[in-house]
Amino acid sequence: MKKILIMNGPNLNMLGIREPGVYGSMSLGDMNDFIQAQAKEQAYNVELEFFQSNHEGVMIDKLHECYGRKDGIVLNAGAYTHYSYAIRDAISSIGIPCVEVHLSDIHAREGFRHVSVIQEVCLAQICGMGVKGYIEALKILLEEEK
Fold first, then answer.
1. Is 23 a catalytic residue?
2. Are 91 and 116 in contact (CB under 8 A)?
3. By the 8 A CB rule, do 141 and 123 touch?
4. Is 83 helix (H, G, I), strand (E, B) or coil?
5. pLDDT digit string (tens) for 61-118?
6. Among residues 44, 80, 102, 134, which one is catalytic?
């Protein structure tokens, strides 16, 4: 059984409240439940762990904890996507396949959101698919590990 971390960064704990026109009306808990249910429905042989933090260092510590313990990471780094070289370095250092996910299409938003400093150390970037992007990321990770 593959062990996958679903990691969400800053402000994602405010899903359903923060800009529902951009991020949707689903809460983070509802989103996690949806991802878990989809994984079960698709009969993915996967154990999911869900984690969210608003703190860069806590996210880095969690990424480091994955070393030798997880087979893949689905990461929505939120705003850290655009400037956290520390998170980029953490992803790179642990050598675990990671897929970058964004609920909205970052390339169709404000100019500062168009750049991802973590994209180069991830297998793929998925954006603009809402919660379904997390399911696509799981598929990519499960295919990568065959």
1. yes
2. no
3. yes
4. coil
5. 999 999 999 999 999 999 999 999 999 999 999 999 999 999 988 877 677 667 899 9
6. 102
8-state DSSP, 39: H
**What are the residues whose beta carbons fall under 8 Å from the beta carbon of 77, sequence distance 6 or more?**
7, 9, 59, 84, 87, 100, 118
The secondary structure element, H or E, covering residue 60 is helix 56-66
Reported as a single tens digit per residue, the pLDDT across 3-25 is 999 999 999 999 877 766 666 67
Q: Which of 77, 60, 146, 64 is nearest to 116 (CA)?
A: 77
CATH architecture of the domain with range 2-144: 3-Layer(aba) Sandwich (3.40)
Q: Which residues contact 47 (CB under 8 A, 6 or more apart)?
A: 1, 2, 3, 4
Report pLDDT for 105: 87
